[in-house]
UniProtKB/TrEMBL annotation:
NCBIfam families: PRK05170.1-5 (NF003501), PRK05170.2-5 (NF003507). It comes from the Bacteria. This is UPF0260 protein LY56_00896. It comes from Roseinatronobacter thiooxidans. Belongs to the UPF0260 family. InterPro entries: Puta_zinc/iron-chelating_dom, UCP006173.
Length: 147
């Protein structure tokens, strides 16, 4: 990977190289979870119902390069749309944290140097999801993410 040493501490998100931008992803898989919004409170509720392309044995998209073509509702995060999408990202998301002027968590792979540190910290969705193909949309509320 062609990234500068601790680039996330000195480089604004919009000035990162594509490799640095991608390296920010901790591999938790939470952004691939379907979310519900309470119409009364506007509270965002993460479910364990994952996108049909999400592979919960790797916590990665099964077809990352073609995801938008296969799943038109998939949101491709960019520095330009981060401001409007940050609300929908998990609280632990590096993109969201850096956008809000916060630090990466100590378990983040960029901090630890260990690509499995997100899983070891128990933050990832490794083996914790159900595919949206298996659950009717009206039943998603029965699958809240209980952390």
């Amino acid at each position: 990977m062609d990234t500068r040493h601790r680039f996330w501490e000195t480089t604004p998100l919009h000035q990162m190289t594509p490799e640095e931008w991608e390296a920010l992803c901790d591999g938790c898989g939470r952004c691939c979870l379907n979310k519900l919004e309470d119409i009364d409170t506007e509270e965002l509720i993460f479910t364990r119902v994952a996108c049909r392309l999400f592979d919960d044995t790797t916590c990665r998209c099964a077809n990352y390069t073609q995801r938008k073509k296969i799943v038109p509702e998939c949101v491709v995060l960019t520095p330009e749309n981060l401001n409007e999408i940050a609300y929908w990202m998990p609280d632990t998301c590096a993109y969201r944290l850096l956008h809000q002027g916060q630090r990466l968590p100590e378990w983040h792979p960029l901090v630890t140097g260990d690509p499995d540190s997100t899983h070891k910290a128990g933050v990832s969705m490794l083996d914790r999801t159900v595919s949206e193909h298996a659950i009717a949309v009206e039943d998603w509320e029965d699958y809240p993410l209980d952390d």
